[in-house]
Amino acid sequence: MIQRIQSIYLLAAIIIQALIFNLATWHGESEPNTFPAFIVNVVPTHTSLISKDKIDAAQKSEDKYSTLNTVIIMLNTLLIITAVGCIFLFRNRKIQLLITRLLLLIGSCLIAFLFFNAEQGMELFNGSKHSSVFMAGVYLPIISLLLFYLAGNRIQKDEKLVRDADRLR
Questions:
Q1: Tens digits of residue pLDDT in 26-82
Q2: Facing residues of 41 across strands?
Q3: Long-range contacts of 114-120 (CB under 8 A, 24+ apart)
Q4: CATH assignment of 5-162?
Q5: What percentage of the chain reaches a pLDDT higher than 90?
Q6: Quick one: which of 156, 2, 155, 17 has its CA closest to 87?
Q7: CA distance 169 to 164
Q8: Helix ranges, 22-135 (H)
C-alpha cells in the first residue's frame, strides 16, 4: 500500500494540504509610515495588526469574506479526507483512479477559491492591490495538484500493467 509510488504522491499531497491551514495566504502593507504590515491566513483567527478604519470597512463585507474562508476550509478538509481514503483503495485501482481525478477537480476549485479569497481580502483590507503579495498558502495547492496528477498517472500505469499481465496468462 504505502510502498507504491502513487501512495507516496498522495501522502505528500495530504501533508501539503494540511500545511495550508497554517500558512499565510497573502501579506499586505498599509500606507507608508502609518501602520505596520499585516498577514492573513485562511483560518480567520490569524489576521493581525489591521487599523480601525480597515476593521470598520471589513465588518461591512465580513459575511462574504468569512463565507469564502468557510468554503476554502471545507474544500481543503474534503480534499484531505478524500485523499486519505484514496490511499487505502489500493486494491481497486479503477475507483482509486476515479477518486484521484475527483481530487484534481476539487483541488482546482480550491485554488480558484484561494486566489479569489486573497483578491477579496486585498481589496477589503488594503484598498490597493499594489502593496499586497500572495504568500505560500496560495501557491502550495498547485504543487498538491501536480502530485494528484502524478498519482493518477501512476495508478493508470499500474492498471495497464495488470491488464497486460492478465492477457499473457
A1: 766 655 544 445 555 655 544 444 444 454 555 555 555 567 778 888 899 999 999
A2: 24
A3: 114/25, 114/42, 114/72, 114/138, 114/141, 116/68, 117/25, 117/42, 117/65, 117/68, 117/69, 117/72, 118/25, 118/26, 118/40, 120/61, 120/64, 120/65, 120/68
A4: 1.20.140
A5: 33
A6: 2
A7: 9
A8: 52-60, 62-87, 93-121
* Model pLDDT for residues 3-30, shown as the tens digit of each residue: 689 999 999 999 999 988 888 777 666 5
CB 80 within 8 A of CB 18: yes
Question: pTM for this structure?
Answer: 0.77
Strands 24-28 and 38-41: antiparallel
Question: For residue 82, what is its C-alpha cell?
Answer: 478524500
Q: Longest Cα pair distance anywhere in the chain, in angstroms?
A: 76
Total Cβ atoms within 10 A of residue 77: 13
129-142: pLDDT as tens digits: 456 677 788 888 99
Q: Whole-angstrom Cα distance, residue 61 to residue 83?
A: 33
CA–CA separation, 144 vs 127, rounded Å? 31
| Residue of 71, 68, 70, 87 lying closest to 14 (CA atoms) | 87
The closest of 98, 102, 110, 87 to 17, measured between CA atoms, is 110
The three cell numbers of residue 56 are 470598520
